[in-house]
Amino acid sequence: MENKSTTNKIPSKLLDGFLSLKGYTQVKSPKRELSGFAKVLAGGRVVGVNREKPFPDRMLASGFTQLLEDVNSTSEDVNRLVLDMVVTNLQAGVNLLGKQEVALAKMGGRLSEMALLYNKSRHSSNYDPRLQEKFEDTRLELRCIARETFDHTALFSNGPSKPIVVVTPSHSSYWERFYIDRCNLGSSGLVAIDSGKVVPMADGLLLDWECFSRAFDEWRYLCAINLLQKSLIQAKREYFSHKLKSFDDGQPWFAPPFPSARSKTTSPHWYN
């Protein structure tokens, strides 16, 4: 009698990793299209990427190369300027994520108010049009929060968008890039809330509790992403602030060489 294999199916992620180790060619999924313009944290500001500029001017601060030439800097001067600018850019990233965190907290409050109005409309024998008016007023506040900016750059997007990049030195041999996401409000639950209604006689989609439940799940996910990114950028800022203080106290530190125009920085995270 023929024996049949009873081996469990290998999870796809483990199988992909095994194939990569064995040298097999894997078919990569196409990259999704991202809206918006590529931006970086440079000079403590959120600025657009000018790919014609050298790496220091593009990713650290505008005019950084000229500054080094004007002061006829020694190697020690260059290393300190690099540390100082890296800390400045990371601090700007912390400030951006902090403002995004506050905006997300405000959004959670407005979503809770809208959910309360929905519950009142469901438990009312006759639908009160004033509930819809209050719902729309609260939704207008939610839309205003969604338009908040940091340094003239939107904190939120309606769909996948290009992130904001900040670069840091790593091990005195290469540069790493870290991505700061603009929270995507284009998910199904949040979109439904933005176009829905809580009383039948109003215009739009009549919402149910599943819509609110999904919207809260999506909001919590955005809060978690914000918290993770803020923790990462804060840790990097504290690390390089300590390096800067140690450097001023006499401990040597050497910046990695600046990449050429054609070379790329590395990313320590798959989503970066």
Largest sheet: 4 strands, mixed
Q: What is the H level of CATH, i.e. the homologous superfamily?
A: f41 fragment of flagellin, N-terminal domain
Question: What average pLDDT do the residues reach?
Answer: 83
| Strand order in the sheet with the most strands | 2-1-6-7
The CATH class is Mainly Alpha
Percent of residues in β-strands: 5-15%
Low-confidence stretches: 1-30
From the 3D coordinates, which CATH architecture would you assign? Up-down Bundle
Structure description:
The chain is of the alpha/beta class. It has one domain: f41 fragment of flagellin, N-terminal domain, CATH 1.20.1330. Helix content is 51%, strand content 12%. The chain contains seven helices and ten strands. The protein has helices at residues 12-22, 55-60, 64-70, 75-122, 129-146, 188-195, 209-248; strands at residues 39-42, 45-48, 149-150, 153-154, 156-157, 164-170, 174-180, 183-184, 196-197, 205-206. The strands form four sheets. A four-stranded mixed beta sheet has the order 2-1-6-7. Strands 3-4 form a two-stranded antiparallel sheet. It has a two-stranded parallel sheet with strand order 5-8. Helix 4 runs antiparallel to helix 7 (209-248) and helix 6 crosses helix 7 (209-248). The radius of gyration is 25 Å and the shape is elongated. The termini are far apart.
